[in-house]
Amino acid sequence: MAKPLRPQFVLFGDSITQQSFEEGGWGAALAALYARQADVILRAYGGYNTSWALFLLDKIFPKLSSPPDVVTVCFGANDAALPVPDGEKFHVPVPQYKANLHQIVSHIKSNSETTVVVLITPPPVGDEAWIDFGRANFGKQPEALPDRTNEVTKLYAQACKEVAKEADVPVIDLWSVFQQTQNWRQAYLWSVQNDPKE
Fold first, then answer.
1. pLDDT tens across 59-87, in order?
2. Catalytic annotation, pick one of 15, 112, 176, 191
């Protein structure tokens, strides 16, 4: 297969990546930044965790195709769901999450050692906003257990960084970077209060 005329960047992830091509999103900004220089390709699946992502690898990164130049991998927000009724179908234990990330990186690298794989940690969770979201959209009672917390998501962000070090690939630590801004919840996170659909 002939090599594409321009470099290819593939954005692989869950809804955080899927929504990156919406107005003001980072994927759209990347495509604009590299307009006429590179093709930015979105391969993202809202609601997916790393275990489900494994089933997509051969379809998105087939062995015989021309490999992309850069791949971002952003999974973990769903893996970090707590094993409570609302989160158990998404939950992936930390050791399995790490093993899945290693398998994703290995698969991509098996097509081309020159492909740059960049891991992206899950971002922090605004605990109160997440509870408000559940209450507003699903009628959850205040006493209901949340299915995501920032404390647990931190463990997955750390695990993602560990995989990056072990696999010798770069990592973007969204979990830590976001929280360096004083009003990070309002500045960076989606909430019921700033939902444009409301």
1. 999 986 789 999 999 999 999 998 877 67
2. 15
Choices 3.40.50.2300, 3.40.50.1110, 3.40.50.970, 3.40.980.10: CATH for 8-188: 3.40.50.1110
Beta bridge partners of 43: 12
Report pLDDT digits (tens) over 131-150.
555 555 555 555 555 678 88
| Separation of alpha carbons 181 and 55, rounded Å | 37
Can you give the residue ranges of every domain in the chain?
8-188
65 an active-site residue? no
Query: What are the backbone dihedrals phi and psi of residue 168, each rounded to the nearest 5 degrees, phi first?
Result: 60, 50
Spatial CA neighbour of 30 closest among 14, 53, 7: 7
